[in-house]
Write a structure and sequence with these properties.
alpha/beta; 2-enoyl-CoA Hydratase, Chain A, domain 1; two-stranded antiparallel ribbon; 10 helices; 14% strand; globular
């Protein structure tokens, strides 16, 4: 169990079909190649992806996966390395609870970004260290919703207790007043390494030699960056991922299922939209 007096997060989600999403801005500022310099560290769990399972990429960090890792490690100290753009807030709260209840000291290291749901997970540490160049990002739950005014009022009422729970977690960690935390969440606050320590979100800065780069799933990272570019252009996630799928199909794959020079097909609808978004996002 955590040595800190941290609150229990609410479990479950208001609706089985409700899923919170990654903010496009968080995806755009995420550097997925950031990793712990010591890749052979024993008794560690790596959170180097979006929070929650992503059916588009087959990737993502889930509560089920973290629970399995903790069972495998057993009782005792554990290090949790985080570099995540956030994701499913409900899944993040479940992971927070798992770490909070672990029978052993939990040391969290924010190597790059711990945004949104990733920042909630980071708060579960008995100790929290953050890279000087690292960032926490805290905000209210961000979801994509459809419906009439009555549906949306009901959704807002559903989300309020979860925003309050996240605020309670941040306040318990930092010692800041609830109103101050609520103001930070309302304004979507990006908190750098030194500021995170000063405000109590983290205990100390990580030594620079503990942060490295490399590894990771290059294909999944590319999909994430394309998604960020398209969603920053105002496109819904489902449409962005459909367009990426169409674009990948149009240019073929390394196994040779496509044909011809991909540049000759850049004028296709999918290719043109993807390239336009990339130019706007300054990736080309």
């Amino acid at each position: 169990m955590s040595m800190k007096n941290l609150p229990v997060a609410p479990m479950g989600r208001p609706s089985a079909s409700l899923r919170s999403e990654i903010l496009p801005r968080a995806l755009g500022r995420w550097s997925p190649e950031v990793r712990a310099a010591d890749r052979d560290e024993e008794r560690s769990i790596s959170i180097y992806d979006a929070i929650g399972y992503d059916p588009w990429t087959g990737e993502g960090v889930t509560a089920k996966r973290v629970a399995g890792a903790l069972r495998s490690l057993g009782k005792g100290p554990v290090t949790v390395n985080i570099n995540s753009p956030g994701g499913d807030m409900f899944e993040g709260l479940a992971i927070y609870n798992l770490l909070r209840e672990h029978e052993g000291e939990v040391n969290v290291k924010v190597l790059g970004l711990a945004a949104s749901a990733g920042s909630v997970i980071a708060m579960a540490g008995d100790t929290v260290q953050i890279a000087r160049a690292g960032f926490l990002m805290i905000h209210n739950a961000w979801v994509v919703a459809m419906g009439n005014r009555n549906d949306l009022r009901e959704l807002a009422a559903w989300l309020e207790p979860f925003d309050a729970a996240m605020g309670d977690i941040y306040a318990s960690r930092t010692g800041l007043e609830a109103k101050a935390i609520a103001k930070l969440m309302d304004s979507e606050s990006w908190i750098g390494g030194a500021a995170a320590v000063e405000q109590g979100f983290a205990d100390e800065l990580l030594a620079s030699d503990q942060v490295g780069k490399g590894g990771g799933n290059a294909s999944a990272s590319a999909v994430r960056r394309l998604e960020a570019a398209l969603r920053n252009s105002g496109m819904p996630k489902s449409e962005a991922m459909r367009l990426i799928s169409d674009f990948k199909s149009s240019v073929g794959d390394p196994a040779g299922s496509g044909a011809g020079d991909p540049t000759e097909r850049a004028g296709s609808d999918a290719g043109a939209q993807v390239l336009s978004a990339l130019r706007d996002f300054s990736l080309t």
